[in-house]
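This section describes the prediction task in plain terms. A model, or a person checking by hand, is given the sequence of a single protein chain and must write out its three-dimensional structure as a string of tokens. No templates, partner chains or ligands are provided. The sample shown here is typical of the held-out split.
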Amino acid sequence: MTRRDDSLIGQVVAANVVLVVLTLFGASLVTGLDLSVDHQRWQFLVLALAIILSLCVNMWMLQRRFRPLERLIDRIEEIDPAEASALDLPGSEPAEEISRLAQSFRRLLDRVEQERRRSGQLVMRAQEEERRRLARDLHDEVNQALTAILLRLEALAQDAPEKQSQEVAELKRLVNQAMDELLNLARQLRPTALDDHGLVPAIDAQLKRFAARTGVEVRMQSDGDAEALEEDVQTAIYRVAQEALANAGRPAHART
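The expected answer:
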């Protein structure tokens, strides 16, 4: 740690030096020391040396007591609150006040970490809720509208002339394709299998769709009870698997 001129230990030492010097000269004036007299000059020198020695001892004690505080400050300055691994402080310090300060700062960092995790969970829940709403709207509203269009095209196909039958058939194909893409998008936003059946069946269904789309066989092995995990954890695991399959599917799609 680089000491500055306005550091606490520097101010304490400077104040002690000023007080000692004033005391030395004050004592000399009160006792009427005459530096022109040999034995009085020696008395003054002995007194000055004793005071200088006491100052050195005082500075050594101050440095010894302030050193743990400096180490604590250095450690605090090195901490990155964004990294959970950096939230550890050195062990107990010899001075009670410094130990209490370290413990208080450690508790503060723990609260910051807890608040950060809680904020992350709230953001994830908000995102998943928005995904769920969009998936529901796509399935309930847009898909129903496309179904109505498809039924209308079916009715038109029965009475359409032969020349327009091909155009109606092409429109039906495009509507069916749009419905399939919407359903796939709705499943990606918020899979119903995750809400209805749980984490493992949802990932298994996603693996089957991935294999059908890319021709790449993927196997899953799970240990333990996945349903015992919290909902946020299950959602995070599902999203990780979803992203991994999406990344793996890009090279496979490029080869085809």
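For orientation: The two ends are 60 Å apart (CA to CA).
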